[in-house]
Amino acid sequence: MEKNRRGNSEVRIDSRTGVQEIPEPEQNRRPPLFKVYKRRWFVLLVLCLSSCCNAMIWLTFAPVATQTSQYLGVSLEEVNWFSVVFMVVAIPLTLGATWMMDSLGLRITLILGSWLGAVGALVRVCGTLAGEGVTLRYAVVMLGQTLGALGQPFILFAPTKLAALWFPDRQRATANMIASMCNLLGMLLSSLVSPWVVTAPAKIPTLLIVYAVPACISCFLATVGIWSSTPPTPPSAGAVSSSSEPFFQGIKLLLKNKAYLVLLLSGGAAMATFSAFNTLLDQVLCVQGYTSDFAGLCVALFILFGVLGAAALSFYVDRTKRFTEVVKVSLLLTALALIAFSLVSQLQQQRAAVAVVCSLLGLFGNSAYPVAMELCVECSYPVGEATSTGIIVMSGQVQGVLYVVLLQALTTRITEAPLSTCQGEDLSWGVSMLVLAGLFCLFACCFVVFFHTPYRRVEAEEEDASSSSPLLADHPLGPPGGPGPQAYLEKRLIEPLG
Length: 498
Description:
Keywords: Membrane, Transmembrane, Transmembrane helix. The protein is mainly α.
């Protein structure tokens, strides 16, 4: 091979064939089509820490409601509002948070969410450190809770967005699972840490300092460590077209998508069921003689087995892409477990049976959440990930409020309950639990029968891969003249959704 110069270009001449080869100029060489970066794990770590801290802020006072009531000088109902405010604030904030995430980017929303959590945690500390005679103590702590609640949507809607932008298709479900389950981990930690720290009402300020430290650390890591919303080179074809639709146009597409509407109702109902389960479990069990410590153990088992099941399902789905089948089977098994709980929870001295059923509820129900969120993105592509999943979360929160109100209205007062450990009046929850199981079974059957969808994001990526020749697969927009992901999007936007 001989080398000559032609102008500013180097010319290579094959000595055997005499063919001249002019290498492509350096500035015209194409970057890799898709590439993953180790930094994706750091971004995931920041989201996990922020999500865990936000959940701990949410449920800080629930395990120590009595001590909090005594320290702040308020009723238990007022203490319950520390948790309820998260649900109330999140409902109207959902659309704004999803718009910001899909329009302004992941970096801004993650930093904003972590800052709101950290500032809220510090405000709570200031409130509890006030003097004994300060009447605004409860209001200051509630202000801190509200700031944390404002940050929740920016954290809660981020897993699918981060998985789509930073992780390749073979790791998306796993990344989504890790980020989503960290919220459950925060709930579990709060149920363990709060009773361990608060041995007396005077320990409430110490508890809030303990929770403020990790919140400030996550805020620092997000502010300093997250430099951009996306990596320099996308990890997949789906990431190239993430949030390609304007926000309001995306909303219109979702309302025309029959599969998404079925998932909106059924998935929201499933989330509402578990919200009601976590909220009312202690009240359901105490009338049968079970202690609050045992109810806390059941919640811990519910979360722990959910995390283990989610890990297994996410690894499986990453390799098989069987989103629909996994979610349908999980919902049917959850329906059976919920029916069992509605019966077992009304029996006395059946601790082992109640614990096993709660574990199965977590294993079948909680484990399906990250897979369902990935399925939501697949059926709604190319609508932004935060928009499609955020609206389903909002549906679950709205239905959750309705479920709690309905189930409480269906209770009846019990005149004699000799084994009761309830601090308030004794109520029978038998009818309420049967209604809850019936509603879940209804929506689960509707999902199994009526939900059918192509995996739009997977199809777009496969179509892009098949259109790229091996020699020209190094370009972020696909080969010259090839359709690429944009052609797929244009095709999909022309086709009716359903």
